[in-house]
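In response to the reviewer comment on reproducibility (Comment 2.3), we provide here a single inverse folding case reported in full, input and output, so that an independent group could reproduce the run without further information from us. The C-alpha cells appear first.
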C-alpha cells in the first residue's frame, strides 16, 4: 500500500490545494463537505479511526504523529501497519469550517 494508491482511491473528491505529495508524505487541503466520503475510503483502506475526533489522544498517538505535527482532540487519526511500515492519515479541520487539512505519512514501524 502506498500513499499514491490511497490518493487514487480518493480521486473523485475535490481537492482545494495540493501542498505536498511525495512517496512518504502527503498534505492536501480538502473541503469539509467531502470529509465523510474521504473517511469512508480511508476506513476501507486503513480501518476505523485509531483516534476519532473529540477523543483525547493517547501518548502512543502523540508519539506516532510527532514528526507530522502531532494530533489534538478535534482531529482524527487513522493508522495501519503494512509490511514493516505504518501508514497514518490525519484530518485537521480548520476554524473556517470550510476546509480540512489531510496529512498522510508512510513511517517505519
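Designed residues, in position order:
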Amino acid at each position: 500500500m502506498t500513499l499514491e494508491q490511497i490518493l487514487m482511491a480518493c480521486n473523485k473528491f475535490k481537492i482545494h490545494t495540493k501542498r505536498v505529495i511525495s512517496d512518504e508524505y502527503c498534505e492536501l487541503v480538502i473541503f469539509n463537505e467531502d470529509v465523510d466520503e474521504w473517511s469512508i475510503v480511508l476506513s476501507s483502506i486503513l480501518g476505523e479511526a485509531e483516534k476519532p475526533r473529540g477523543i483525547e489522544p493517547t501518548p502512543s498517538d502523540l508519539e506516532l504523529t510527532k514528526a507530522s505535527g502531532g494530533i489534538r482532540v478535534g482531529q482524527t487519526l487513522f493508522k495501519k501497519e503494512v509490511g514493516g511500515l505504518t501508514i497514518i492519515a490525519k484530518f485537521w479541520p480548520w476554524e473556517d469550517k470550510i476546509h480540512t487539512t489531510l496529512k498522510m505519512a508512510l513511517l517505519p514501524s
